[in-house]
Design goal:
Blueprint (H helix, E strand, L loop, with lengths): L1 H17 L12 E5 L9 H10 L2 E7 L4 E3 L4 E3 L3 E7 L2 E3 L4 H9 L11 E6 L3 E5 L7 E3 L2 H6 L13 E13 L2 E3 L6 E11 L2 E3 L13 E11 L2 E4 L4 E3 L4 E12 L4 E6 L6 E15 L3 E7 L4 E17 L1 E6 L26 E15 L27 E6 L6 E13 L6 E5 L16 E2 L4
Parallel strand pairs: 1-2, 2-5, 3-6, 4-7, 5-8, 6-9, 7-10, 8-10, 9-11, 10-12, 11-13, 12-14, 13-15, 14-16, 14-17, 15-17, 16-18, 17-19, 18-20, 19-21, 20-22, 21-23, 22-24, 23-25, 24-26
Antiparallel strand pairs: 26-27
The structure holds 2-acetamido-2-deoxy-beta-D-glucopyranose (12 copies).
One 2-acetamido-2-deoxy-beta-D-glucopyranose binds next to α3.
Length: 449
């Protein structure tokens, strides 16, 4: 709690002090639509849709500073071109869960992973600019009630929408602020997208906020910087088709599942491809993972030129984690206690090549490992790891003795809270393919080089 408050203060005071010119040239954006509000008396979605239709190209669309907008039905603006959206008001989704569920049920989306999006913004050159005023520019989704409605041992109730699908080329997302999202926050698709000063608050006062991913990325040439993500799943998940993604100067925490690549290779017939992904200068607080790679046994593909550098971990259960035998909790393919997945042929691996982990400092969570996403025995994050001591700083599990190549770990200075020797679990990262690994790949004590 203390840490969170301190971080918020720094974040917003730097906005006030820095005050760089936020104005960009709008001369090509000659139209302007200011969205009227009912001020809480009606559904404002029709007015929003009307503005997006009228100002769909070469325009500035304004949600007025400090004004409340009820977004009781989803907004899809998929024909935008060269538009700036000034998000200076505060948006409110319906507070009635069944109202939202019946809308999601009315779409053709798959329930678990691909629920409908509440906001879909698509087209070239979209700049979403939130308010730098701490009180304004929030999207309020009232997720707390959804999290608390999750039954004991459930992994999130049905018919939850994703919040925002942002599909653009040469676009940006600045000061995106999400308060208590129902589940997944932002899906980024497209090319050349800059995200900065995002603030995602999925911290729960009750039940676990399942699937509150920060950014799911299927895009090229993406930068996500100077942001704060407190949530209950991946802060960022970089998915197949992503190339050249930078994630830096961010703070992530609460019940975060870290900075992830994947999951890759779920559909065995499809070739996953991810490259040039770099995470650096990130603080990770109370998370299950800091750096994480997840691919499915029997999936095929390549993940190449990937790094995590200058990472500060505080009270993190698994600071560095690689699995090539991943499954989703709640998926129909079951995992046996030894980490083996049934129902899949282990005929391929997503090949990992040129991975760097360097300059990690901080502490392993030895005292209260894991988080509230554990609803099975063993927990999903302990599967295949029967003898955890919670002194593990590095866990690397390769599917075969040739599926991990050119891994390099340097300056990993992470200490278990118990002050015991740091340990490592390592399978099949062979010395011949990984001459710079920095330690012997075997189950044992971690000796940093
Ligand atoms: C809502 O509030 C704004 C700003 O205070 C005001 O300009 C507008 O007229 C109000 N709208 C209605 C429908 O009352
Ligand atoms: C999309 O916008 C363009 C102008 O930018 C317009 O000509 C076209 O009719 C729009 N298409 C749809 C489906 O609205
Ligand atoms: C939510 O909406 C449903 C259907 O309109 C209604 O039956 C129910 O009473 C509402 N719940 C609350 C808490 O208002
Ligand atoms: C929506 O569908 C889910 C899953 O079938 C169901 O649990 C829920 O009751 C439905 N809700 C509404 C309001 O239709
Ligand atoms: C990327 O988009 C920005 C606008 O957000 C633009 O200024 C820049 O030229 C684009 N970069 C490339 C390589 O197209
Ligand atoms: C592995 O087997 C699955 C299921 O039979 C198949 O879809 C996939 O293409 C196979 N992968 C390779 C690399 O042959
Ligand atoms: C993976 O994607 C990169 C970038 O688009 C491309 O250069 C490379 O050829 C792809 N690799 C394979 C094996 O398809
Ligand atoms: C790795 O990625 C970085 C950033 O995209 C790029 O500059 C570098 O050239 C890549 N390295 C290789 C060997 O492709
Ligand atoms: C460490 O993180 C766990 C899980 O989030 C939490 O329960 C515990 O209170 C944290 N401990 C400290 C010392 O911050
Ligand atoms: C929840 O799961 C735990 C661990 O598997 C089990 O002990 C408990 O009985 C379950 N509770 C309910 C209500 O299903
Ligand atoms: C290591 O890789 C070999 C094949 O390359 C495989 O047979 C073996 O099961 C793997 N070891 C473990 C512990 O997974
Ligand atoms: C590590 O060693 C323990 C026994 O000391 C064993 O039970 C466990 O399976 C090993 N883990 C791996 C990943 O090899």
């Amino acid at each position: 709690m203390f840490i969170k408050r301190a971080t918020i203060c720094l974040f917003f005071s730097s906005l006030a002090l820095g005050a760089p010119s936020l104005k960009r040239s709008t001369h090509e954006r000659s139209h302007r639509c200011v969205i009227p509000s009912s001020n809480g008396t009606a559904n404002d979605s029709p007015a929003v849709l009307q503005a997006f239709a009228k100002c769909s190209s070469d325009s500035v669309i304004v949600f007025q500073e400090g004004v409340d907008y009820n977004i009781f039905t989803p907004i899809a603006a998929t024909n935008l071109s060269n538009v700036e959206i000034q998000m200076k008001g505060n948006l409110h989704l319906p507070q009635n869960i069944s109202t939202v569920q019946s809308i999601v049920n009315g779409t053709s989306s798959t329930l678990y992973a691909d629920g409908a999006y509440w906001f879909t913004l698509a087209g070239p050159k979209i700049d979403y600019t939130g308010s730098s005023n701490v009180n304004n520019g929030w999207i309020n989704s009232y997720g707390q009630a959804w999290w608390d409605a999750n039954p004991v041992n459930g992994t999130g109730i049905d018919s939850r929408p994703h919040l925002l699908s942002f599909q653009t080329t040469d676009g940006s997302l600045k000061y995106f602020k999400s308060r208590k999202p129902i589940a997944w926050n932002v899906q980024l698709q497209g090319d050349n997208i800059t995200v900065s000063h995002a603030f995602i608050d999925a911290e729960s006062t009750g039940s676990f906020p399942f699937n509150t991913d920060g950014f799911d990325v299927t895009a090229t040439n993406v930068r996500i910087t100077d942001s704060i993500i407190y949530n209950g799943d991946d802060a960022i998940a970089v998915q197949s088709g992503s190339h050249n993604v930078i994630f830096e100067r961010n703070t992530i925490g609460y019940q975060s599942h870290g900075m992830s690549i994947g999951s890759l290779g779920e559909t065995q017939s499809e070739f996953a491809n991810v490259s040039d992904i770099h995470f650096s200068d990130v603080t990770v607080i109370d998370a299950v993972y800091a750096s994480r790679f997840k691919s499915w046994m029997g999936g095929q593909g390549i993940a190449k030129n990937i790094s995590w550098k200058n990472i500060r971990v505080y009270n993190v259960t698994f600071p560095i984690f690689v699995t090539q035998s991943y499954t989703n909790q709640g998926s129909t393919e079951t995992q046996l206690g030894n980490g083996v997945t049934t129902g899949r042929v282990n005929n391929a691996s997503v090949m990992m090549e040129d991975f760097v982990w360097s300059d990690f400092t901080g502490s392993v969570n030895s005292w209260r490992p894991g988080d509230g996403s554990c609803v099975t025995d063993p927990c999903w994050y302990d599967l295949g790891l029967p003898d955890l001591k919670h002194t593990e700083t590095v866990i690397i599990e390769c599917n075969t003795d040739s599926s991990c190549k050119n891994f390099e770990l340097t300056n990993i200075e992470i200490i278990p809270q118990t002050l015991a020797e740091p340990t490592v679990v390592c399978i099949n990262a062979t010395a011949s393919l990984n001459p710079e690994l920095g330690f012997d790949c075997r189950n044992g004590t971690f000796i940093p080089n």
